[in-house]
Amino acid sequence: MSKKMVLIGLVVVFAVFSELITPWIASYWLDSALTKLMPAQQHHVSARSFPGIALWQGHFDGVEAVAGDARLDGLNLREVRIKIADARLNMGHLVSDRQVTVRKVRELDVVIRVTEKDLAEYLGKKVKEVKNPTVKILADKIQIRSDIDLGLLKLAVGVDGKVIGDAQSIRFQSDHLEVKNTGGINFGALLAEIPLVDLTRLPFQVAVRKVVMEPGFLTIYADNR
User: What is the CA radius of gyration of the chain?
Assistant: First the structure.
């Protein structure tokens, strides 16, 4: 076999390793890290860079991740989409600890979708006094109906509000609270604001830009800009 053929063979092997195998390995590591952070029924992660060998140095031209039925802070997220452009990651943390550590990122977008069922389940677990909550998401507000169990005292509660967020957290904020037969007890503080997701636990910095409510579900948009 001539030296030229050997050289061509080596180039082909390097190209396959760089452009096919390396992105697959990096995607697998990222998928494992996201699963550790945010357990989900379904995960799909795709990482890319050119040349692909740059991924070994933590240079990512783009990352796209989709998670279905994921859990974060006890809240079920029906769908999470993460899109990253031009990022630098700590590969030592990713390889050894399956941990995403972002050193630098130009653009990062996160889209989270939550349903009525997800919110109702979360409220029933998060607020111990709330029993059998039902949630209805409308275009202009979120309606919560529930019983409050205080031992000898059981009350019917109705709360109207919305989901808001910033760079710190995503939370439910009540606008209107109606409680029957309170006996003079003030329940305003109990349901005035309920934390949903602590954004500071994420391995990157994002802030909520928009929350869109539609019948049956809400969509939260966050980014780093």
Answer: 23
Q: Concatenated DSSP letters for 17-51?
A: IIIIIHHHHHHHHHHHHHHHHS-EEEEEEEEE-SS
Within its chain, how far is the Cα of 108 from the centroid? Answer: 13
Residues 6+ apart with CB under 8 A from 157: 130, 144, 145, 146, 147, 148, 177, 178, 179, 180, 187, 191
The token pair at 10 is 């080596």
The total of other beta-carbon atoms located within 10 Å of residue 121's CB is 16
User: Per residue in 7-61, pLDDT tens?
Assistant: 554 444 444 444 557 888 888 999 999 899 889 988 899 998 888 778 888 899 9
Query: Do 118 and 133 meet the contact criterion of CB atoms below 8 Å apart?
Result: no
What's the predicted TM-score (pTM) here?
A: 0.85
Q: What is the phi/psi pair of residue 89, to 5°? A: -115, 155
Q: Is residue 168 helix, strand or coil?
A: coil
